[in-house]
Amino acid sequence: MQTRKFVMRLSCKNRPGIVAAVSSKLFEAGFNILDSQQFDDTETDMFFVRIAVECEQQFTRNDMTALMVPLVQRFEMDLDVRDTAVRQRVAILASKADHCLADLLYRWRSGDLDIDIVAVISNHPVEVYPNLNLSGITFHHMPMTPGGKAEQEAKILDVLKDVNAELVVLARYMQILSDDMASKLAGRCINIHHSFLPGFKGARPYHQAHERGVKLIGATAHYVTADLDEGPIIEQDVERISHRHAPDELVRKGRDIERRVLARAVRYHVEGRVLRNGTKTVVFPE
Description:
Blueprint: E1 4-13, H1 18-28, E2 32-41, E3 46-55, H2 61-75, E4 78-83, E5 88-94, H3 99-110, E6 115-122, E7 139-141, H4 149-162, E8 167-171, H5 179-184, E9 189-193, H6 205-212, E10 216-223, E11 233-240, H7 247-270, E12 274-277, E13 280-283
Parallel strand pairs: 5-6, 5-8, 6-7, 8-9
Antiparallel strand pairs: 1-3, 1-4, 2-3, 9-10, 10-11, 12-13
Helix pairs in contact: 1-2, 3-7, 6-7
């Protein structure tokens, strides 16, 4: 009989007996635990756990969710269950800079990212991407016009609903989302910021870094919130530089960092490795 695999994420106030209760429930239902990681936040007294399981029975995601209902009620848990056989539907928003978009497309086509890219949305026409292979992907040109932000965002939300996008990735999308849109995408929208936050904000960040003689540049992937570039951080990386590097070289290095940081953040999200912890995240390693 073919096995089914699920990833279960739980969070609740910490108290004795949580792990024992969850393990016993899974054992009684015939599940085999493949991987289990947990974290106790002593500052907030919150408990977080990610459990990967398999079962030979014909369980569905809904079945597993129902199985855990008594424990969810008992411990007042937040529960998320994912069927690993179901690929998450991802929509990508982009602007002129195409390096992150190109990287995500490559990782998707090569199988490095276990996702389905269901739409690419840009505030620029498809002609600005002559080097990208967009075949097989629905491309939506959503231009930004003066005073037309609300209308443009409404159209984007309609597309996201039509394609049933579960995750939205801002792949260097150079438009600030309104508070309303950020709220509607809460917990399922990832942005890549061209700086190791907190850092140099505004235009030409690498040039600002060069002028200040920094020794590290970096990038930050975070969930989008109404507070600009202040959302819970998922992943970051840096690269050491020196006085020998000109601004153009920093831009080139920065693009490389942005690509790998965004790809890791997307992978961690779709694999259920990220749990929100107030203004922070708990990210369980691979």
